[in-house]
Amino acid sequence: MIRKALTIAGSDSGGGAGIEADLKTYSAFGVHGLVAITSVTAQNTQEVRAIHDVDPEVVAKQIEAVADDIGVDAAKTGMLSNAEIIKAVAKTVKKYSFPLVVDPVMIAKSGAPLLREDAMDALIEKIIPLAKVVTPNKPEAEKLSGIRIENLEDARKAAKIIVEELGAESAIVKGGHLGLSEAVDVFYFNGEFKEYRAPFVDGCTHGTGCSFSAAIAANLAKGKELEEAVRIAKEFITMGIYYGAKIGYGHCPVNQNAWIEIPAEKWRVYESLRNAIKELVAIENLPQYVPEVGMNFVYALPRLYARSKDDVAGVKGRIVKFGSAVKPVGGVEFGASDHLARAILTYMNFFPETRSVLNLKYSEELIKKASNLGLRVSFYDRREEPEEIKAQEGGTIPWGIRTAIERINGKPDIIYHLGNWGKEAMILIFGETPQVVLRKLKMLIE
Ligand SMILES: Cc1ncc(COP(=O)(O)OP(=O)(O)O)c(N)n1
Ligand SMILES: Cc1nc(C(=O)O)sc1CCOP(=O)(O)O
């Protein structure tokens, strides 16, 4: 049965925060999202240009309409904007028994106020006591608790005040603004403190508060215990910040899709490469083209998710000559390639759609044939590698690929190098997918 989660929040026309972030988060967790829009903002990654509040009665009607028919397993509040909307929301949600996550939205990351000054008392009196959990960041927790927060001890005090004095069931004070090397969130629940830690990632932060609270609501809707819902939400938001796409000129938005897209893409890449390798090893005359160091065949995740060699699938132990045949030594794994992973990651900086590459033993004859077939060929010469690149661990291949691409000022199908002392000469064949690489290989050697 599909679970339903409601968001009572404002709309962000930039799609980074508010209702839009909440719905994307609900989708990422496989929960059906319901909405009660409180306010329409004309907003982008840099500024809020206009705010138009919805009639409080219409906000209440939206909540009732979905709760009475579809049902709500959990809900969250975001931007509530003014005291009348706050009162209408409080009065309406009290009629139902769903758990409520309260993100006490006050100011947008761009600095614009999203809660009127005179609505703070209403938020504290009417909404906070209804919360299963309140999720303030540092400035919001300071406003709610009335204390300054400089460190984790202050965050603990603020969380305790929000629960014991303001009446929420629990509170999680987020540590993203505390300037620590880790993002530490302090959670106070059932008279006990707990900390949720994640490495502080430099990434896209617009909509973090919205997406984090929506992730908690989605997981509560799915029947998770509160502490588990918070743990999952922390993992989700860390991933969303790290894999955010740099859109707009201001604070770029969290990528909620990373949560589902990365596992799905990993599976597609794995399957596609495994099938291509079966086809590769069945090519009859392949053994003569396998280099002494062995061959590898790799496929990277889409550009947004391809950051390191762990995001590139390849053959563990490479593909080697075995009697008169060719065999993969191990299975397809992410992180299994070093040289080709560095080659494809560099190539993708220029041509993000080209995500696969394979290496072959060098022969002058193959290079001539490639050119005759109309494949674009370029090369690099390891003897020309600058000293400062040589000094960098793993710098040669990225330098070589860059040099080869810049040499022809275009997109090479093939890049070769003639080797150097202790380094075998090599041909690399590039393509959008392993199937495209295989097609080029077959043109060349069959
Ligand atoms: C409509 C709307 N709601 C909420 C916000 C706040 O989002 P943001 O500025 O990204 O701050 P955090 O939610 O990340 O703390 C908004 N900008 N617009
Ligand atoms: C050892 C080696 N050197 C290459 C080059 O292009 O110079 S390709 C290659 C084989 C593949 O290595 P991996 O499994 O680390 O990707």
Automatic annotation (TrEMBL):
GO terms of molecular function: ATP binding; hydroxymethylpyrimidine kinase activity; phosphomethylpyrimidine kinase activity; thiamine-phosphate diphosphorylase activity
Keywords carried by this UniProt record: ATP-binding, Kinase, Multifunctional enzyme, Nucleotide-binding, Thiamine biosynthesis, Transferase
Record domain Thiamine-phosphate synthase ThiN: where: 272-442
EC number: 2.5.1.3, 2.7.1.49, 2.7.4.7
Source organism superkingdom: Archaea
A biological process term (GO) from this entry: thiamine biosynthetic process
RNA-binding is among the record's keywords: no
Start and end residues of each Pyridoxamine kinase/Phosphomethylpyrimidine kinase domain: 12-255
Any one GO cellular component localisation term in the record: cytosol
Transmembrane segments: none
Catalysis: reaction(s): 2-(2-carboxy-4-methylthiazol-5-yl)ethyl phosphate + 4-amino-2-methyl-5-(diphosphooxymethyl)pyrimidine + 2 H(+) = thiamine phosphate + CO2 + diphosphate; 4-amino-5-hydroxymethyl-2-methylpyrimidine + ATP = 4-amino-2-methyl-5-(phosphooxymethyl)pyrimidine + ADP + H(+); 2-[(2R,5Z)-2-carboxy-4-methylthiazol-5(2H)-ylidene]ethyl phosphate + 4-amino-2-methyl-5-(diphosphooxymethyl)pyrimidine + 2 H(+) = thiamine phosphate + CO2 + diphosphate; 4-amino-2-methyl-5-(phosphooxymethyl)pyrimidine + ATP = 4-amino-2-methyl-5-(diphosphooxymethyl)pyrimidine + ADP
Pathway noted in the entry: Cofactor biosynthesis; thiamine diphosphate biosynthesis; 4-amino-2-methyl-5-diphosphomethylpyrimidine from 5-amino-1-(5-phospho-D-ribosyl)imidazole; Cofactor biosynthesis; thiamine diphosphate biosynthesis; thiamine phosphate from 4-amino-2-methyl-5-diphosphomethylpyrimidine and 4-methyl-5-(2-phosphoethyl)-thiazole: step 1/1
The keyword Kinase is assigned to this record: yes
Free-text function comment from the UniProt entry: Catalyzes the phosphorylation of hydroxymethylpyrimidine phosphate (HMP-P) to HMP-PP, and of HMP to HMP-P.
Family, per entry: In the N-terminal section; belongs to the ThiD family.
Name of the protein this chain belongs to: Bifunctional thiamine biosynthesis protein ThiDN
Organism: Thermococcus litoralis (strain ATCC 51850 / DSM 5473 / JCM 8560 / NS-C)
Source species taxonomy: Archaea, Methanobacteriati, Methanobacteriota, Thermococci, Thermococcales
